[in-house]
Amino acid sequence: MPEALTADDLVALALEVSEEGVRAGELPVGAVVVMGEEIIGRAYTQEPAQGRRLVHADLLAMEQADRRLGWTARARPLVLAVTLEPCLMCLGAAMALGVSQVYYGVEAPDDGAAGVPAVWQPARSTMSFSRPPAVAGGYRRQECIEQFRRYAATASTASLRQYAESMAALG
Q1: What's residue 3's pLDDT?
Q2: What's the rounded Cα separation, in Å, for the pair 126 and 35?
Q3: 142 with 171: CB under 8 angstroms?
Q4: Rounded to 5 degrees, what angle do the CA atoms 69, 105, 2 make?
Q5: How many Cβ atoms are within 10 Å of 147's Cβ, its own excluded?
Q6: Is the dihedral of CA 25, 31, 33, 34 positive or negative?
Q7: How confident is the model over 53-81, as pLDDT tens digits?
Q8: Mean pLDDT for the chain?
Q9: Residues with Cβ < 8 Å from 138, sequence gap 6 or more?
Q10: Counting Cβ atoms within 10 Å, is residue 17 exposed (0-12), middle (13-18) or buried (19+)?
Q11: In this structure, are residues 105 and 14 in contact, taking their beta carbons and an 8 Å threshold?
Q12: Are the beta carbons of 149 and 168 closer than 8 angstroms?
């Protein structure tokens, strides 16, 4: 792995994880959590496989990182890269974990939370869990949209197909 991973590199790693999910029949959303140059969490969305809604790729990758790190001090900042803009739940989890930067591929027009940090005004900004990460998107956007386009052709249910088609239409 290169010494200094760029945002583009990180989203490319998330795309690789997302592709694993597509092969498993899942929506094309993948995520990685990185500390320095080390991946400490990686996952793809697992909603159909687990039959649950709260198994987003970014949340699952952050849970892995949290289990690995526990309460230990972070040697380097935590960075989250995900193919799809995080929702409010996942952005909140990133805050709780202490993620300093989030990079994503394609915007989520219906539930994306990238705008939250600009308006977040906690009562006590000195608390580590009250500081939202910096969020930037558009990395490898067309590749992320193309994954949704390919997935839409093979989606297992009408609702997943409809969602994938709506995301593919962003391109």
Answers
A1: 61
A2: 22
A3: yes
A4: 55
A5: 27
A6: positive
A7: 999 999 999 999 999 999 888 889 999 99
A8: 93
A9: 105, 106, 107
A10: buried
A11: yes
A12: yes
Closest to 101 (Cα-Cα) out of 20, 6, 23: 6
HEC profile of the chain: CCCCCCHHHHHHHHHHHHHHHHHCCCCCCEEEEEECCEEEEEEECCHHHHCCCCCCHHHHHHHHHHHHHCCCCCCCCEEEEEEECCEHHHHHHHHHHCEEEEEEEECCCCCECCCHHHHCCCCCCCCHHHCCCEEEECCCHHHHHHHHHHHHCCCCCHHHHHHHHHHHCCC
**Edge-to-edge strands of the sheet including 38-44?**
38-44, 30-35, 78-84, 99-106, 134-137
Task: Residue count of the chain, please give it.
Answer: 171
pLDDT tens-digit readout, 81-101: 999 999 999 999 999 999 999
Please report, as a single letter, which amino acid is at residue 121: Q
Question: Phi/psi zone of residue 65: left (φ > 0), alpha (ψ -120 to 50 degrees), beta?
Answer: alpha
Q: Which residue has the tokens 């093979």?
A: 154
Q: Which two tokens stand for residue 72?
A: 């230990």
